[in-house]
Amino acid sequence: MTETWNFINTGSNDPYYNMAFDEALLNFVSRGEIDPVIRFYTWNPATLSVGYFQRLTKEIDTAKVKALGYGLIRRQTGGRGVLHDKELTYSVIVPESHPNMPSTITEAYRVISEGLLEGFKLLGFDAYFAIPRSEEEREKLKQPRSAVCFDAPSWYELVVEGRKIAGSAQVRQKGVILQHGSLLQDVDIDELFDLFIFKNDRLKDKMKQAFVDKAVAINDIAERHISIAEMESAFEAGFKKGLDIEFKPLKLTPSQLQEVDELIIKYKSDEWNYRK
Which Gene3D superfamilies match (predicted)? Predict the structure, then answer.
């Protein structure tokens, strides 16, 4: 019997709304108000999001972010910095107790990412999961070399032609798994690296080259230009197939929308964004 999950595409919004909405969905699922949910969204303005544990002022050139007109926000998930610009962002919110969800983060990540894998296949890519095999590779995962998210494939990262094509992060709170991530349509690598602080230019250039070697956007390798609308269609179908689910549209109640608004205040605050 195929299970039915909620689906919502909130379109293009500012960073405060985007992060508040994800946290609100986690709360609704936690309280049993809604079934598991998959959400798609995009960003306006383009925004640099930093991981929950990142030291913002030590790792990010905040003046540069501001000068370029980008948004800046701290996520509730861990991981490193991501520039959300030409991309489709997804989030999956599901109870930890769900029968199809493994108890370990890594294995749950693999199950959820089956939806992404199928989406990439529908777009015509030969995508697969990267699994670090050697002890050395596994050790490297524990010591990320830079503050930039797409710098290294981790467990079950999605890879096309040997390069990482999706960056995701997961958090577990209140008995709920929240996994969200970036599906890059295009990326401007020079612009991305200008937003981070490096000890010197040599190190910056080295990291930039490592990034080029390890990460790729959809339109870097697609035979034709793929639009966000095409990505939305492919990944919606991909999640249905990969997770063996159907979708019903999610419509929030007035009180749920009010909760989103209240969380927006938190995400706009310096106390949250500059907490580290």
Answer: Bira Bifunctional Protein, Domain 2
Q: Which amino acids are annotated catalytic?
A: 149
Looking up tokens 């179908």 gives 237
Copy the structure tokens of residue 230: 């095409």
The structure tokens listed for 65 are 């972010």
What are 51-84's pLDDT values in tens digits?
Answer: 999 999 899 999 999 999 999 999 999 888 888 9
Domains within the chain, CATH numbers bracketed: 3-273 (3.30.930.10)
Concatenated DSSP letters of 25-47: HHHHHHTTSS--EEEEEEESS-E
Task: Give yes or no for a contact between 23 and 64, defined as CB atoms under 8 angstroms apart.
Answer: no
**The token pair that represents 103 in the structure block:** 């108890």
Residue of 233, 250, 199, 255 whose CA lies nearest to 34: 250
- Quickly tell me which residue has 């609308």 as its tokens: 229
Q: Among 165, 192, 180, 147, which residue's Cα sits nearest to residue 46?
A: 192
